[in-house]
């Protein structure tokens, strides 16, 4: 079978640099850019920067940047499936082995946007490390010295005030006063909220899709039909990124705090609280977990009993959103693997679960049973499974720390969890490994 490839060169200027080549950005940001192009309201190509030496860049270039996004799920009670050929990706550059080409990409005359998803742990300042903000510092320095206009940064990492934090970390790498002024005055850093469940490559169904498409596509990406993107930005950004004209659900706001709280605590928090335990119980996909009596009940308790009181929104709105999250998790077409959600679970637990746990304790005067148990699941998983996390986290757990040492690691949680009344004893009673 012929492999998918581009027959004609992409005749659009590169307007977007994208740090991250994974399934999420390709099924979210690139899909959005492609929709805008096809509705004649953007006319821009995406050049992907692979942040790490190993990744999917070679596969992307082998297919000329082309791939299909499969949107399938349930809408208004009906099963739906749509397959879109995404054509906006021009190429992928390796930030480690092709550093000069990364800088050259940042100097393209029509470049306007930088999107990213380098995981929750990606936006950080480490003086001697080649972090994502360190790379941003390199590209803004190059553009400043070349006399080129500033860029609009739209990070998609799921951390609070991601745009503000990216700017803060980037400035820490810059000592040149002129470049610092350039970043402050010429560049725009937008904080965002992303909402679409992306399951990724459909391993068990790939060949059937190839038959349906008549071409082999090694970069297929499955996602749900739901799409929601909240961007804190001035009117200038909304004018340059007119996704609404393409029928894409992008909202530009002055403050996305309530949107973020709702999504992170309900959808992401429920994921992080449950998937590690479900994986150790033998499940592979999220929808299997939802249908199981034990974990289905656990998930409902997380959503409706423990997270619900901590979100300051009208009751009806919270009920509706929690119910929609449960329906999305139960999507039989998503093939959303539990292990794909388990990546960097320590930083995810800190961001997605801990705030709800602390607020519940403050409101109710007692610990939430399921959110507390989720820490026991995390400890069991990190003690017995092959973990994918930052090198520092992997090294820490390789030392076989005690439960008290894990909970007391302030580098992981931002606080000593042993100081939460009754938490250590509750977690220890739930740990089995």
What does this structure look like?
- With 433 residues, the protein is α/β, with parallel strands linked by helices.
- The strands form three sheets. Strands 5-2-1-6-7-8 form a six-stranded parallel sheet, with helices on both faces. It has a four-stranded mixed sheet with strand order 4-3-11-10.
- The protein has two domains: 14-253, Rossmann fold; 257-430, N-(1-d-carboxylethyl)-l-norvaline Dehydrogenase, domain 2 (Orthogonal Bundle), CATH 1.10.1040.
- The longest helix has 24 residues, at 257-280.
- A hairpin with a 2-residue loop joins strand 3 and strand 4 (78-86).
- It starts with 13 loop residues before the first strand and ends with a helix.
- Helix 10 (257-280) packs across helix 17.
- It contains 21 helices and 13 strands.
- The radius of gyration is 22 Å and the shape is globular.
- The chain has helices at residues 23-27, 29-38, 57-62, 99-106, 132-146, 162-172, 177-186, 206-213, 235-240, 257-280, 286-291, 293-307, 315-329, 338-341, 345-352, 354-364, 369-384, 391-398, 403-407, 410-413, 423-430; strands at residues 14-19, 45-50, 67-75, 78-86, 89-94, 113-116, 152-155, 188-189, 192-195, 198-200, 221-223, 228-232, 250-253.
- Helices cover 47% and strands 15% of the residues.
Outline the fold blueprint.
Elements: E1 14-19, H1 23-27, H2 29-38, E2 45-50, H3 57-62, E3 67-75, E4 78-86, E5 89-94, H4 99-106, E6 113-116, H5 132-146, E7 152-155, H6 162-172, H7 177-186, E8 188-189, E9 192-195, E10 198-200, H8 206-213, E11 221-223, E12 228-232, H9 235-240, E13 250-253, H10 257-280, H11 286-291, H12 293-307, H13 315-329, H14 338-341, H15 345-352, H16 354-364, H17 369-384, H18 391-398, H19 403-407, H20 410-413, H21 423-430
Parallel strand pairs: 1-2, 1-6, 2-5, 3-11, 6-7, 7-8, 12-13
Antiparallel strand pairs: 3-4, 9-12, 10-11
Helix pairs in contact: 5-6, 5-7, 10-12, 10-15, 10-17, 17-21
């Amino acid at each position: 079978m012929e492999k998918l490839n581009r027959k004609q060169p992409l005749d659009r200027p590169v307007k977007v640099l994208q740090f991250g080549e994974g399934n999420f950005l390709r099924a979210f940001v690139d899909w959005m850019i492609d929709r805008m192009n096809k509705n004649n309201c953007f006319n821009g190509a995406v050049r992907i920067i692979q942040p790490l030496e190993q990744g999917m860049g070679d596969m992307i270039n082998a297919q000329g940047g082309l791939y299909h996004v499969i949107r399938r799920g349930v809408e208004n009670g009906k099963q739906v499936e749509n397959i879109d050929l995404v054509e906006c990706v021009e190429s992928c550059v390796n930030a480690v082995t092709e550093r000069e080409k990364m800088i050259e990409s940042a100097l393209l005359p029509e470049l306007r946007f930088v999107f990213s998803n380098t995981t929750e742990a990606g936006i950080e300042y480490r003086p001697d490390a080649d972090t994502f903000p360190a790379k941003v510092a390199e590209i803004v320095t190059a553009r400043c010295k070349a006399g080129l206009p500033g860029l609009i940064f739209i990070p998609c990492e799921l951390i609070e005030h991601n745009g503000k934090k990216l700017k803060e970390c980037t400035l820490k790498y810059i000592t040149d006063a002129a470049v610092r002024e350039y970043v402050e005055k010429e560049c725009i850093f937008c904080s965002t909220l992303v909402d679409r469940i992306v399951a990724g490559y459909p391993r068990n169904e790939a060949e059937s899709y190839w038959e349906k498409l008549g071409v082999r596509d090694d970069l297929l990406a499955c996602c749900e039909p739901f799409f929601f993107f909240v961007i804190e930005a001035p009117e200038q950004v909304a004018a340059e990124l007119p996704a609404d004209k393409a029928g894409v659900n992008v909202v530009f706001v002055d403050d996305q705090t309530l949107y973020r709280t709702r999504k992170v605590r309900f959808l992401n928090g429920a994921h992080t609280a449950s998937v590690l335990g479900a994986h150790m119980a033998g499940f592979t996909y999220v929808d299997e977990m939802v249908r199981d009596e034990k974990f289905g009940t656990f998930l409902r308790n997380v959503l409706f009993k423990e997270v619900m009181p901590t979100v300051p929104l009208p009751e009806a709105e919270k009920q509706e959103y929690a119910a929609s999250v449960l329906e999305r998790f139960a999507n039989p077409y998503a093939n959303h693997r539990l292990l794909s959600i388990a990546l960097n679970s320590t930083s995810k637990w800190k961001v997605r679960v801990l705030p709800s746990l602390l607020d519940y304790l403050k409101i109710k005067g007692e610990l939430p049973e399921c959110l507390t148990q989720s820490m026991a699941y995390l400890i069991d998983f990190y003690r017995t499974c092959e973990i994918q996390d930052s090198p520092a986290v992997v090294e820490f757990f390789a030392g076989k720390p005690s439960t008290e040492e894990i909970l007391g690691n302030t580098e992981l949680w931002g606080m000593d969890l042993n100081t939460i009344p009754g938490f250590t004893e509750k977690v220890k009673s739930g740990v089995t490994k």
